[in-house]
Amino acid sequence: MAETFVDEDGGAAGRRRALARALLAEPKVVVGGGFVLFLVAVALFAPWIAPHDPLEQDLMLATLPPAGFAGAEPGYPLGTDGLGRDVLSRLVYGTRIALTVAFVAATLAALFGTVLGLLAGYLGGKVDTVIGRLVDIWMAFPPVLLSILLVAILGSGLHSVIIAIAVIDWTRFCRVVRAETMAQARMDYVTAAVTIGFPRPAILVREILPNVAPVIIALVSLEMGIAIIVEAILSFVGLSVSSDTPTWGGMIAEGRQIVHHGWWVLAAPLAALFAAVLAFNQLGGGLRRALDPVMRR
Amino acid sequence: MTAPLLSVETLTAVSGRDGGRPILRGASLTVARGEVHGLVGESGAGKSTVAKAVLGMLPATVRVAGGRVLFEGRDMLTLDRPALRAILGTDISLIPQDPQTALNPARRIEAQLTDGLRLRRGLSARAARARALELLDEVSIRDPARVLAAYPHELSGGMRQRVLIAAAFAIEPKLVIADEPTTALDVTVQKQILRLIRGMQERHGTGVVFVTHDLGVVAQICDRVTLLYMGKVVEEGTTADMLERPRHAYTRALLAASPRYDRPDAGLQPVPAAVFDELRREIAVFDAREARHG
User: Fold this and answer.
1) What is the model's pLDDT at position A294?
2) What are phi and psi of B157, to 5 degrees?
3) Cα(A231)–Cα(A228) distance, rounded to whole angstroms?
């Protein structure tokens, strides 16, 4: 009468190994995650990686082309900008701002949006109506204009940029988490938990949240890419950190002005921005697949 | 005779939407301690609504217009949330219909099976685990330790249903609501599961409300049966009486429409239109009387 059991490995260590295997089997996670780790390493070890001081100006060495082009100087592999600053070093230091904003802003937006999304999806009724309306109103504002407005009110600086991104993008999490929570709340296992007599907060946190978590994690990764773009936009218009801190957006703004005789000053930060956002997007897509508890085998 | 464990008294419910369409028309039934009571009817007959009312979990779209649902003398319909929670999980539990969605995919079996024991019986993690192993053994799972460490998707449908049965009986409830627990399973597994529920129920002396649309299932497990049609009780009695000496034409017609293991040669007869006419007439009479009184 007893049936045979299909799983081969038991125990927590086996589970962790199985999870690691599932993640590594997803090429998007490996490639995207690998590049994100590379960026993190670059940001952490910037002083050792950067060949020059990113702020050191030398007008004698202004607008040197990157290695391989006529007139390139050794020691400046990506050339120099209009003030003679090393582009590679500035790029390396710019990673710090980009990743700080990506991690902190995306996490804050996720926290805020998830809490409201869980409440709206699970409680329904008036709570859902109020939160849903709030999301609708929020999304009626163009995000870039809203962020510029917010930073203008809060004053420029890293904190303001992070707060602006979190305040604008929580709706992204709220909508997805709300829909997913509603779907999960209809499942029989939630009914079963109710019949055991669990209070509602416990059901929300212990039963529903773990099933919504894969979607949130994937979305956080996507949001990090978006946060990097928004930070670059705000830097571009000069509303982010002060101009003596190198940022990708600031570099793009500077490069734009000398694009005719120094295209690399524009191309280098654009390429870095593109690669970083692509990596976060790939990682997000891959995580969504790999973490789904039902699809996991 | 002692007081029944559960007594549903002239329960009347209407849909909150589409203009108060009646869902239950004065349905009554009583379940004694240790009895398996079949709640039978076609789709929309109101059997699930009765089950939900017993669990105090009627959806917001259903409005109770009258009647009581007494569990050990307390009306489940008027209890406040804390009082209801105190009964659910200690005295009443549920075997859900679909083993695919009734277990949380993100949590191990151990966590799900010990939830009730820890919350309701105050067992320590270690004691709850020991009890869970016993329970899995009781529902004929060969390798309980391994199942406890598993996630639901690693188990077959039959295994999952066994886990759910173990969970329902874990806290030694007085009443188990089984909501079509075998509908999602194939027939061979179905038979094992029925035997299992019956065995558990007899050992623990538990009352069971067994919701099903399958008279074959009723014959295998139920002591008494209540047959519903459009929210009205058509016939009520012991399983033997109902299957051997059906009183109502609808019951007779349903039996003739069901495959019988004991009479393999008897062909299957569709339910004659005249039977439905008769049922509708009875319901019209009931509705007219309700309208006069209410």
Assistant:
1) 53
2) -60, -45
3) 5
Q: Give the residue numbers spanning the domain of A286.
A: 93-291
- CA dihedral over B102, B58, A195, A180, signed as positive or negative: positive
Domain count for chain A? 1
Q: In chain B, list all ranges with CATH 3.40.50.300.
A: 6-91+174-293
Low-confidence stretches of chain B (pLDDT < 50) are: none
pTM for the complete prediction?
A: 0.79
Which tokens go with A156? 């420029």
What are φ and ψ of residue B88, in 5° steps?
-65, 135
Element (H, E) at B93: strand B92-95
Cβ contact, residue pair B102, A5, below 8 Å: no
Cα A104 from Cα A227, distance rounded (Å):
9
- Contacting B with CB below 8 Å, chain A residues are 1-7, 10-11, 187-189, 191-199, 206-207, 210-211, 213, 293-294, 296-297
Q: Which residues of A touch B87 (CB under 8 A)?
A: 197
Question: What per-residue confidence (pLDDT) applies to A4?
Answer: 40
Identify the three-state secondary structure at position A97: helix
* Contact (CB, 8 A) for B49 and B27: no
Type of residue at A152: A
HEC assignment per residue over A182-221: HHHHCCHHHHHHHHHCCCHHHHHHHHHHHHHHHHHHHHHH
> Exposed/middle/buried for B84, CB within 10 Å: 0-12, 13-18, 19+?
buried
Distance CA B10, CA A271 (A): 74
Contacts of B112 in chain A (CB under 8 A): 189
Phi-psi region of A238 (alpha: psi -120 to 50; beta: other; left: phi over 0): left
- For tokens 């509708």, the residue is B280
Q: Give the pLDDT of residue A293.
A: 59
Residue A262: Cβ within 10 Å count: 21
Query: How buried is B264 (Cβ within 10 angstroms: 0-12 exposed, 13-18 middle, 19+ buried)?
Result: exposed
Is the interface score ipTM higher than 0.85?
no
> pLDDT tens digit string along A63-76?
888 888 888 888 88
Question: How big is chain B, counted in residues?
Answer: 294
CA B189: distance to chain centroid? 18
In degrees and rounded to multiples of 5, residue A224 shows phi and psi of -60, -40
Residue B210's pLDDT is what?
95
Return d(Cα A229, Cα A88) in angstroms, integer. 20
Average pLDDT, chain A: 87
CA-wise closest residue to B198 among B189, B207, B186, B185: B207
Tell me, yes or no, whether A201 lies in a domain: yes
Torsion of CA B10, B94, A128, A112, to 10 degrees: 160
Q: Which CATH superfamily is domain B6-91+174-293 in?
A: P-loop containing nucleotide triphosphate hydrolases (3.40.50.300)
Question: What CATH number does residue A174 fall under?
Answer: 1.10.3720.10
CB contact under 8 A, A188 and B97: yes
d(CA A136, CA A50): 45
> Is the Cβ–Cβ distance between A177 and A114 less than 8 Å?
yes
